Each structure stands twice: as structure tokens, then as C-alpha cells.
From TrEMBL:
PROSITE patterns: FAD_PCMH. InterPro entries: FAD-bd_PCMH, FAD-bd_PCMH-like_sf, FAD-bd_PCMH_sub1, FAD-bd_PCMH_sub2, MurB, MurB_C, MurB_C_sf, Oxid_FAD_bind_N. It comes from the Bacteria. The keyword Cell cycle applies. It comes from Dyadobacter chenhuakuii. It is an enzyme of class 1 (oxidoreductase). This is UDP-N-acetylenolpyruvoylglucosamine reductase. The gene is murB.
Length: 338
């Protein structure tokens, strides 16, 4: 295991932003991770865990030991007539794991195709798309305490999953490194194709009796049509969360803005698409120098090349103010500012 100093993180974040880590180490096993966490040289130094870098905005250099887990492997834990339990290493690419499941006809994650990032980051964020969240398929999360180096297994309940939230972003923030995730997948898949875009795309594909492979391909097609490829234009996908507001507030806004979409999430709350709010506030396609708002999807802030994190952060703040002034809704970033 090699520890490098003054290490550029430009190729380790999907915005393609320049940031320098004081120290950087890749760990390819739980043993390597424990070794560095308990090493007296590093034990008292600040640490930052960096996965695929698809949900971070670097606004400064990282004065810490950056640990980049590349723990690999997908193994069968057990199976029964209806389900398959798979454990994936935190360093596995998320989309690659989804493709593994789809190719073996293990259902449950096909709606989450083409989401960037790693398996280890997925439960921290409780990633979700097209009616499915990772909490729907997780059985447990294996993680190592940064302070003690002790491994712990978190049950699904202990992960305290919420909308783009988990215990690892709240009570246990910066306290654990996820090393592996165990999933429960369906051997007799039940498709989730309730979203209009998915249904429409399947029809365009002339698919009348879809399989999980068809659903995966439809989701991939949708994402490619709406979202820029980070390899071409720096971005972190959806920059803001879709806000959930009280039903009374939504009904009042609906009287003023009849075209405002909303999705009931409970008896008292309605989810409003953040992308719609941003677009209606006039930001879609906006560009200022090297940064801007994507032309096809207002929810995505982009770095066209040469931008910096503070410029993107400032643009995000201006968009938040603009949407709040028009609709009385304060958007919350989904991306983590570093």
C-alpha cells in the first residue's frame, strides 16, 4: 500500500475539479484499511473517504489523508427458491454491479442502472431512481470504524435510510468506512415500471412483455438522453434533492402555478421536482464562463472545463435564492461540499 503526498484529485471526482490531497492511499482490502487506520503515524491525522467522487464538490484542497477504497468482489452468500443474497465490495462500480445482477436475472436494481459511483457510496446516499431506492434491496452494510478499526455489520434498520439519507450521513457521519454491502435480489423479478418515462421508452423499444434486461436498457436510454456523460462534461448528476413540502403549501402554490407537478409521498407531504422549479425560474441552459446549468436537464450543474468548485457553489446558492423567491421553497443540495 503506497501513500502519496500532494496528490491531485482531479481524476477522482466527476466534476473534474482540481483539488490536492495532502496524502492519498488506495486500499484494496479490509485488512489494508484497518492497517492504515490503526497506524500510529496516521491514527491522529484527519481522514477523508473518497469513493467514485460522483457526489462531491471540491471547493478547496483536502488537508487530510484521503482514503480511496477499491475493495472488489461479488460473492453469493446464500439463496432460496425466490431470492439471491449477494455481497459486493465497496470498490465495485455501481453500474457494473447492476449489470452483473441483470445478466443473471436477479431483479431489484435494474431501475438503478447507469447511476455513477461505487457500491460503497450507494447506501450512504440511499441512491434512487424511477421508483426504486437502494434501501429496497439492502440487507446489511459492512463498515469499519475510522477511530477503532473495528468492523461492524449494520442491519437495514440500523442504516436509518431516508430520502437520499442514511445514518452514515447523519449520526455516524465521518465515523465509518463502508467496505461491503449485502443485497437481497429477486430470482422471480417483479418489475417496477410505473414511471411514465420508463413506460414510454419501453413502448418506443417495441417491448410489450418487458424483462429486467429491457427495463435496464430503457433506464440507460433515458439517463443518456437527459444527463451529460461526466467523461464529456464535468457534473455530479442531480445537484439538488427534490423538495418535499406540506400538502397545504403545495395546494396554495398549485392555485398560483396550475402547471406545477407534484407527487404525493404521504398524507401530509408532496414531492415537487427540483428540476422543474429550476427550469421555471429561468436557469435551464444558463452558462457563466466555464460553468453552468445543463441544457437538457436543469437539475444538473456542469463544469465545461476549467471551472472551480467555489464558482459552482456560488451558482448553486444563486439558484436556491431564485427558486425560493419565486416559490417559497428552499432547495437542498444532494451533492456534498468539501
Amino acid at each position: 500500500m503506497q501513500i502519496q503526498s500532494n496528490f491531485s484529485l482531479r481524476n477522482f471526482n466527476t466534476f473534474g475539479l482540481e483539488s490536492t490531497a495532502s496524502f492519498f492511499a488506495e486500499v484494496s482490502s479490509v485488512e489494508e484499511l484497518t492497517e492504515i487506520l490503526l497506524d500510529p503515524v496516521w491514527q491522529q491525522k484527519p481522514k477523508f473517504i473518497l469513493g467514485g467522487g460522483s457526489n462531491v464538490l471540491f471547493t478547496q484542497n483536502v488537508n487530510a489523508l484521503v482514503i480511496h477504497p477499491v475493495i472488489k468482489g461479488i460473492e453469493k452468500i446464500k439463496e432460496d427458491e425466490d431470492h439471491m443474497w449477494l455481497k459486493a465490495g465497496a470498490g465495485e462500480g455501481w453500474h457494473e454491479f447492476v449489470m452483473h445482477c441483470v445478466s443473471h436475472n436477479f431483479g431489484g436494481v435494474e431501475n438503478l442502472s447507469l447511476i455513477p459511483g461505487t457500491v460503497g457510496a450507494a447506501p450512504m446516499q440511499n441512491i434512487g431512481a424511477y421508483g426504486v431506492e437502494i434501501k429496497d434491496v439492502v440487507e446489511s452494510v459492512e463498515a469499519v470504524s475510522i477511530e477503532s478499526g473495528i468492523k461492524r455489520i449494520f442491519s437495514k434498520e440500523e442504516c436509518e435510510f431516508g430520502y437520499r439519507e442514511s445514518v452514515f450521513k447523519k449520526a455516524l457521519k465521518n465515523q465509518y468506512v463502508v467496505t461491503g454491502v449485502t443485497f437481497v435480489l429477486d430470482k422471480k423479478p417483479v418489475l417496477n415500471i410505473g414511471y411514465g418515462d420508463v413506460q414510454k421508452t419501453l413502448l418506443e423499444m417495441n417491448v410489450t412483455s418487458p424483462t429486467i434486461q429491457d427495463v435496464s436498457q430503457a433506464v440507460i436510454a433515458i439517463r443518456r438522453s437527459k444527463l451529460p456523460d461526466p467523461a464529456q462534461i464535468g457534473n455530479a448528476g442531480s445537484f439538488f434533492k427534490n423538495p418535499e413540502i406540506p400538502s397545504e403549501q403545495y395546494n396554495s402554490l398549485k392555485n398560483i402555478f396550475p402547471e406545477m407537478p407534484g407527487y404525493v409521498v404521504s398524507q401530509t407531504m408532496v414531492k415537487v421536482p427540483a428540476g422543474w422549479l429550476i427550469e421555471q425560474a429561468g436557469w435551464k441552459g444558463y452558462r457563466q464562463g466555464a460553468i453552468g446549468v445543463h441544457q437538457k436537464q436543469a437539475l444538473v450543474l456542469v463544469n465545461y472545463g476549467g471551472g472551480n468548485g467555489n464558482e459552482i457553489r456560488a451558482l448553486a446558492g444563486t439558484i436556491q435564492d431564485s427558486v425560493e423567491a419565486k416559490y417559497g421553497i428552499r432547495l437542498s443540495p444532494e451533492v456534498n461540499f468539501i
